[in-house]
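Entry 14. Structure prediction run on the chain below.
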Amino acid sequence: MSVYKRGDVWWYKFRFAGQVIRESSKSKSRTVARAAELARRRELEQSFNRIKKPRTAQLFSVGAEAWLQSKAAHLAPRSVVIERANLKHLIPFFGKLLLCDITGDDIARYQGARLKEGASPKTINLELGTVRAVLRKHRLWAAIQPDVRMLRAKDDVGRAITREEEAALLAVCRESRSRSLLPSVTLALNTAMRYSELRLLRWSNVNLAARTLTVGVSKTESGQGRVIPLNERAFAILSFWASLFPLREPEHYVFPSERYGAAGDGFKAACVHSTDPTKPIGRWKEAWEAAKKRAGVQCRFHDLRHTACTRMLEAGAPFSVVAAIMGWSASTTVRMAKRYGHIGQAAQRLAVAALSGANFATDGAQNWARFQARHTSAPR
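Output returned:
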């Protein structure tokens, strides 16, 4: 190691691969010059040995876009939309920061700013999940993770609608101008499918002969490809819906994009003047909100899935069977077991009752319990 001074500035000089490297540290500090020499030597050694240097000196806005492009092919379309929405909030705050400069304090300041804007803790945690993914890609998350605390968010279980509320909803869905609203709501209640799974369902996924339905595009990897049996209600509504599309092809969408003319006079009389079966329906939001308002029922479309899950558990269906129908991963199944643990206790009582055995009334355990009751004095 050799450092020397030229005027007020320290320089360093060393030999590397037979060549003399002589450069200015641009500093008046000898200590800085020594550190600069070590850093320069390390840089040359890594370059000579073709050791790829991590690209951490990159703006968050650039790194986030590169991350999303690399992940887009492996994410569901809905997930890409969600990540884009998260970045719309993240970029104004983190966009001009270098990835390597983001700290736990920056995360905390972002949390505070978003809370003041009225965002919920759950939403903020989801947004920070995107930050975590971007930093992980560049091997930077582990360094700040101990300084980051996620906000405490309420576990939004949702609610199961009653049979009376269901009847009211279906009644107004029959009168909706959107003729696909009734079959979609009915299927959601009888298959526990997600909104996006229904919207992107194709006729190739429907087997009316076997009375089964195979989920195509799903939010999760475990949800995709699961086979759901069709009960009588689901089979009836899907058979009727199929009869409206005699020229359907396997690659066509079950709920195609449609344009309506003048308001129809009920479900069967809906005036459809344009249908494109190669494109899925855009959304049911307007029709769904109008139906809820007319029925006087406050719930989300996702609550239909929650309703189906609750009813299966209350009927005594094994949790493993329900998990398969819902399309939960192993980790999600564990979490949902805690969430829905209070449901289906009748089936749980039957399960533990089997442990007592058929001869419980005459075995020694009951006699011992009676003996203890007679000879144990009551506490004073």
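Confidence is low (pLDDT under 50) at residues 264-269.
Filed with the rest of this week's runs.
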